[in-house]
Amino acid sequence: MRVTNIVHLGIKELRSLLRDPVMLVLILFAFTFWVYAGATAMPELLNRAQIAIVDEDRSPLSSRIAGAFHSPYFAAPELIDPDIMDARMDAGRDTFALVIPAGFQRDILAGHPVTAQLNVDATRITQAFTGSGYVQAIVTAEVREFASRHHGATDLPVDLVLRARFNPELDNTWFGSVMQVINNVTLLSIILSGAALIRERERGTVEHLLTMPVTPFEIMISKVWSMGLVVLIASAASIGLVVQGWIGVPVEGSVVLFLAGAALHVFATTSLGIFLATLARSMPQFGLLLIIVLLPLEMLSGGVTPRESMPGIMQALMLAAPDTHFVMLAQAILYRGAGISIVWPQFLALAAIGAVLFAIALLRFRRTISTMA
């Protein structure tokens, strides 16, 4: 192995990437607008949901219910007539339409069963699912307090004090932005390394490399360090400029320690990308393989749902994936400010998994090179 060959081959890969505008746009989009979209699109919590109220009772209780819907969960409710309720929902103007029937307060005070109708636009699935529970809880609480002739909760012998750590405002953008960066590191490292090999095969430059005094190991390691360097620089810029600067998410731990873990993760995922590229004969085939590989990695690594909520056998199987350990160390460092004394098991696991994936990819790459020769 000659270090100069690895350096020059890596520089060649960087120059080839600079001449590929599609890949450059993908990198720029993934670590800027995609991160912003991941932080702000489809929040899990209700945020300024549109609600209309058909008040056929016109009583103090119905007015009290209407005044209970306020920001940040709901936009200011609009009082509408019943004949335009369906048209407004058909036009997408309201997510919720609450109908308070006539005689609502009278029947409540008389102790008679009363039914209020809630119409929900279920095409807005996240807000519809979460908001229905919010509306029911608000209406129930207001009716109970009005019927008991007082406002406020009953004093209990036990007082539960809630303290939210690391994200005291429970802001969903804090989670979404950082997780999008983590997912993009995996996505781009696999795509760039695999595309680099397929691009050489389609252009016929692999045959040129075979005539040069370089080994398959030197060719492969040059692709790993060059494409990995691009991903690390892009992720560092995204953490500093987009996550912290644009979105305003505070990072608790060391970004340098996070990048060190990302380097080990990129070593594993670029090797995986080269392995997939040796199986595919063209970019469309490589894209299909990416779908099969990336979806399980991102869905089951703990970045979307906690690993503890998955079946035990799935938790055990996903320990063999680099994404699982990278998500664990990234969340510990960036969210909770963990140091190396806490995340060193994940560092060791990434190094071991990366070494295994690199060895498998190198073996497959050598066989592919030998068939070309």
Protein model, in words:
The structure is a single chain. This protein is mainly alpha-helical and 373 residues long. The model has no long low-confidence stretch (mean pLDDT 87). It is 65% helix and 4% strand. It starts with a helix and ends with a helix. It has a four-stranded mixed β-sheet, with helices on one face. The longest helix has 33 residues, at 340-372. It has helices at residues 3-18, 21-30, 33-40, 60-67, 85-90, 104-110, 125-147, 172-203, 205-210, 216-246, 255-279, 283-300, 312-318, 322-334, 340-372, and strands at 51-55, 78-79, 96-100, 117-120. It folds into two domains: 3-41 and 171-372, no CATH class; 51-147, abc type-2 transporter like fold.
Summary of the model, kept short:
By secondary structure, the chain is mainly alpha-helical.
- Number of structural units classed as domains: 2
Counting DSSP H or I runs of 4 or more residues, the number of helices is 15
Order of strands, widest sheet: 2-1-3-4
Give the number of DSSP strands. Answer: 4
End-to-end distance: 20 Å
Helix percent reads 55-70%
| Beta content | under 5%
- If you average the pLDDT, what whole number results? 87
